[in-house]
What we know:
By secondary structure, the chain is mostly helical. It contains three helices and no strands. The protein has helices at about 20-40, 50-70, 75-90. The longest helix is centred in the N-terminal third of the chain and has 24 residues, at about 20-40. The radius of gyration is 14 Å and the shape is elongated. The protein starts with 17 loop residues before the first helix and ends with a helix.
Amino acid sequence: MTDPLTPEDPQPLHQAGGDAVQAEMLVQRVLSWYEARLTEARTGNREPEQLAAWRSGRDQAADDLDQLEDADEDETVQIALAYAARYKELTQA
């Protein structure tokens, strides 16, 4: 099993069959992060702007997950890199 792709990876990113799996895993992680925040927000008092941003992020991740089904190799790698960076940003905030 390979580690998830990160934006800092210097080597070629295409791995036979691995890119799509890693991309899906990364998008799922981000989607789960947003879902967890939205679930937590039901019990607390959150700013409407924050909730809207989380919903928008969740919806975009769901759309990108669907897009992966028809994405070519380059699109798959770009989605994976974008979600690796987004997950890092969300979890370090």
